[in-house]
Amino acid sequence: MTSSDSPASRLATRLAFWVAGFGVAAWAPLVPFAKQRLQVDDGTLGLLLLCLGIGSVAAMSRTGPLCARHGSKPVIVAGGVGMILLLPLLSVVSTTWLMALTLLGFGAALGSLDVAMNVHAVEVERDAGRPMMSGFHALFSVGGFAGAGLVTLMLSQAVSPLAATLICASLMAAAMIVTAPRLLVRAAAAPAASTEGLLALPRGPVVLLSALAAVTFLVEGALLDWSALLLMDTGLTSAERAGLGYALFAVAMTVGRFGGDAVTTRFGDRVVVFWGGLTVLLGFLLLLLVRQVEVALAGFVLIGLGASNVVPVLFRQAGSQQAMPAALAISAVTTVGYAGYLLGPAVLGFVSRQAGLPAAFWMLAGLMVLVPLLARSATTTPAVDADARAPEASRGTP
After folding, report:
1. Which of these, 175, 288, 323, 340, could form a disulfide with 217 (CB 3.0-4.6 Å)?
2. Ramachandran region, residue 356 (left: φ > 0; alpha: ψ -120 to 50; beta: rest)
3. According to the model, what pLDDT value does residue 248 have?
4. What is the DSSP letter of 397?
5. Burial zone of 65 (CB within 10 Å; 0-12 exposed, 13-18 middle, 19+ buried)
6. pLDDT value at position 145?
7. What CATH class has 205-378?
8. How far apart are CA 380 and CA 287, in angstroms?
9. Where is each Major facilitator superfamily (MFS) profile domain found (predicted)?
10. What superfamily does domain 7-184 belong to in CATH?
11. What is the three-class DSSP state of 40?
């Protein structure tokens, strides 16, 4: 067995994040084809898309206990294989109920992989003795760009949806073949974790970490669905250019995460969360107060840069606290955070219908005040404790 602080385990973690981002993004360009194939209206399509989120949240809440008992490796492998097998099915199923079941399964595989890879990342980072979480999350974003871009390119070249997904599944399979033997192995489950219930409910400091994750994910989900409409409704740009705001946000978040580990190493988790939250608030102020498109787009960049490293820090803190086993804490933070991501667009739509879209975005800004306000309370442990090791298990690469 080799040390868990090894290039092999770090490569496996990065590839797991890449597979998750690549797989879910590869599905996005297929949505219009699915709607046409199934002959459903927008309302039915919305319910179908909700199945992916339901499957993810349901699996996330159960994955923490599984990782606590068996380690993250088998869950990562199972989640990755599930996404690989189900992605091509999403391009060919022709009945509404079968699509709903497939999306539930695809979402469950994604949710399981999401939690397990973050549990694995916490272990790798702890043994490395330095911040690495932001870099791991950056690979999810890179996978997202690659998945959406590759499928869009193939579809634009008249490649069939099935062929496109088979190619994507092959790339994901190749990545998982490299990943699986390099994942950390645990000899035994933690006794405390083995007695946990079926669901990972947050308690102690994990409650606050989960709440801040929900706020940050809510902002990200709302920007995805509503940022283009905000730019159009305020007369800042045309429909053809309205997507530029979210694109800049996504690029800024990816760039921020690539540099986030160095920033965290230099300044610490508390500073990253505090100033990250303030940067997001500054971005919202530029977006909502200045009626000039260039300034509004700069606001999207600041929101992306500020939010980029908040969630990685929250995951690190969840893995370091002592109130819950790390696997269960990460499962709780992921589940609550992703619930915020799913609810964000709906909540924003309700507020927009009552008070207008700008008011809804002011609500987002108000919620983000909680991040810098509670930064000190949320970051109670050091960024990385190089001497901290999971006492209940021995780990290594096979």
Report:
1. 340
2. left
3. 85
4. B
5. buried
6. 83
7. mainly alpha
8. 32
9. 206-398
10. MFS general substrate transporter like domains (1.20.1250.20)
11. coil
Q: Three-class SS of residue 294?
A: helix
* SS3 at position 121: helix
Reported residue count of the chain is 398
Q: Which of the residues in the chain have pLDDT under 50?
A: 1-3, 187-196, 386-398
- Strands (DSSP E) contained in the chain are 185-186, 395-396
Written as six digits, the tokens of 185 are: 């192995």
Residue whose token pair is 């090791």: 389
| The token pair that represents 109 in the structure block | 């595989």
List residues bridging with 396 in a β-sheet: 185
pLDDT, tens digit, 9 for 90 and up, residues 134-177 = 899 999 989 988 888 899 889 889 899 999 999 999 999 999 99
pLDDT at site 179: 96
Question: 385 and 320 in contact (C-beta within 8 Å)?
Answer: yes
What pLDDT, on a 0 to 100 scale, did the predictor assign at position 12? 95
Report pLDDT for 227.
Answer: 79
In angstroms, rounded to a whole number, what is the distance separating the alpha carbons of residues 304 and 291?
20
Alpha carbon distance 213, 322 (integer Å): 19
Which residue from 7, 108, 16 is spatially nearest to 63, judged by alpha carbons?
Answer: 108
Q: Which residue has the tokens 């940022």?
A: 227
Residue 145's nearest CA partner among 2, 250, 263, 283 is 250
Q: Which tokens go with 356?
A: 């207008």
Judge whether 112 and 82 are in contact, CB under 8 Å: yes
Distance separating alpha carbons of residues 16 and 80, to the nearest angstrom: 8
Question: Which residue has tokens 């705001």?
Answer: 245
Alpha helices in 269-325 (DSSP H): 269-289, 293-307, 310-320
Give ranges for CATH 1.20.1250.20 in the chain.
Answer: 7-184, 205-378
